[in-house]
């Protein structure tokens, strides 16, 4: 029996890269997509890197063709590609709004649609959603669209025993913050607001994804696993 195969979108940095490294270390065959330079990703050499923009349906088709050729089928699809455009409604322009929905919602939807023929019975699909409220109205709306989508797909794909779940990271120290101009000092200061006293690492999310993909989570579908160090716990019923 061949090793399980995983396709990770947005897998060249941050949470996606950490998940690729963890799954690879546990014997998975792994392919990642991303818009970054594959040579600079620093992933193990037998992890395949495919350049693909989540907004582009031809790019998604290309990635699926590569996955079909390399693996034949998939056991895990980790829909992790996403962008952040935090900000209040007054400062959100149409380009930012469209990017949020084109990558976080449309891209994930069509990636899963095109991956369906490759998904084995009993495969796992995991969305990255996000635990953060107060990150901007358009950002919250785009991320919020994914949870009902995930639950609906969990019901739709249950007859094929494909489990569909989400992982919602809290404050995780990833390169995305640097791109937004957030300093390391600022990130470190956020630890004061976290009940467990530290900002999360990409590896914290990778462990959650690996669990959801594993047989240990074989009776879990349609659920959202929040990995936030306790942020938001007090505000939930």
UniProtKB/TrEMBL annotation:
Sorted UniProt keywords: Oxidoreductase
Organism of this sequence: Streptomyces rhizosphaericus
The keyword Nucleotide-binding is assigned to this record: no
Keyword Oxidoreductase belongs to the record: yes
Pfam families: adh_short_C2
Family, per entry: Belongs to the short-chain dehydrogenases/reductases (SDR) family.
UniProt cross-references to CDD domains, sorted A to Z: SDR_c (cd05233)
UniProt cross-references to Gene3D superfamilies, sorted A to Z: NAD(P)-binding Rossmann-like Domain (3.40.50.720)
Protein name: SDR family oxidoreductase
């Amino acid at each position: 029996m061949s090793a399980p195969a995983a396709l990770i979108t947005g897998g060249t940095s941050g949470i996606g890269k950490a998940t690729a490294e963890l799954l690879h270390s546990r014997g998975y065959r792994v392919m990642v997509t991303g818009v970054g330079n594959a040579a600079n990703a620093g992933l193990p050499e037998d992890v395949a890197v495919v350049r693909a923009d989540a907004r582009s349906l031809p790019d998604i088709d290309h990635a699926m063709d590569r996955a079909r050729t390399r693996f034949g089928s998939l056991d895990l699809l980790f829909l992790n590609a996403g962008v952040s455009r935090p900000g209040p409604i007054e400062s959100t322009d149409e380009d930012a709004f469209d990017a949020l929905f084109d990558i976080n919602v449309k891209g994930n939807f069509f990636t899963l649609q095109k991956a369906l023929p490759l998904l084995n019975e009993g495969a796992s699909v995991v969305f990255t959603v996000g635990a953060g409220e107060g990150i901007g109205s358009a950002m919250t709306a785009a991320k919020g669209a994914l949870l009902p989508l995930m639950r609906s797909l969990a019901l739709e794909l249950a007859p094929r025993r494909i489990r569909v779940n989400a992982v919602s990271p809290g404050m995780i120290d990833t390169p995305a913050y640097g791109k937004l101009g957030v300093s390391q000092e600022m990130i470190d200061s956020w630890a004061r607001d976290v009940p467990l006293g530290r900002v999360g690492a990409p590896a914290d999310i990778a462990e959650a994804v690996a669990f959801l993909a594993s047989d240990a989570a074989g009776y879990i579908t349609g659920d959202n696993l929040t990995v936030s160090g306790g942020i938001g716990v007090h505000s939930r019923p």
